[in-house]
Design a protein that fits this description.
five-stranded antiparallel sheet, 221 residues, secreted, alpha+beta
């Protein structure tokens, strides 16, 4: 019996620790986000709409059946449905994304979500996916087929790459109403103002000329 109680306690502790890793739990049924704060309450980064004025459309978004445009330099498109698309997501700690990939080579480049864990399911095509742990860095990868699911822990660098000759489609759930995204290459070589090239040359062990070429490439990306 004591062992059973310990296991229950351990399960509850683990559940609490996971729940604490994403957005705070709401203290009301919902808090539909509104842009204007007139007579509103500020909760979780947004102002709350008067519940008496809330309508079904505040919890609705159409169009995830429509493929995204993959005609860009990386051959992918992410349609994110977060609190900016569905105001009713405010305080609920969840969002959704559709990911479209061009045939072989379509890439969702290495990036992180600073505020959310991602769980991804492939519905079409074949994806090579992976994430890298914090130091000492370890790479976890997997080839995913339709119906396969993979998890990318919060804050870790991860990617998805289409290795098939056909289009690929996946959907992802994220444990935040606004998980955020930092694309590594863009953040390093394309911020405004730019990072001192001497810093990047030293960090990446590259010639300064190469760093400056990369900065020019990404500044207009």
């Amino acid at each position: 019996m004591k062992c059973f109680h310990f296991l229950v306690f351990l399960a509850l502790a683990l559940a609490f620790s996971f729940a604490s890793a994403d957005d705070p739990s709401p203290l009301q049924d919902f808090c539909v986000a509104i842009p204007e704060p007139e007579n509103a309450v500020f909760v979780n980064g947004k102002f709350c709409k008067n519940p008496n004025l809330t309508v079904a459309e505040d919890f609705f978004f159409p169009g995830l059946n429509v493929p995204g445009n993959t005609g860009n330099r990386v051959g992918s498109n992410v349609t994110l449905v977060n609190v900016d698309r569905i105001p009713g997501l405010n305080t609920l700690g969840i969002s959704l994304a559709r990911l479209d990939f061009a045939p072989y080579g379509g890439l969702n480049p290495p990036h992180i979500h600073p505020r959310g864990t991602e769980i991804l399911v492939v519905v079409e095509g074949t994806l090579y996916v992976g994430f890298v742990t914090s130091n000492p860095n370890r790479l976890f990868t997997k080839v995913l087929y339709p119906g396969d699911v993979f998890v990318f822990p919060i804050g870790l660098i991860h990617f998805q790459f289409n290795i098939a000759k056909t289009n690929a489609v996946a959907f992802a759930g994220l444990s935040s109403q606004n998980p955020g995204v930092i694309t590594i290459a863009d953040a390093i070589f394309g911020p405004k103002p730019p990072i001192n090239p001497d810093v990047l040359a030293k960090a990446f062990q590259l010639d300064k000329d190469m760093v400056e070429k990369l900065q020019k490439l990404f500044e207009n990306a």
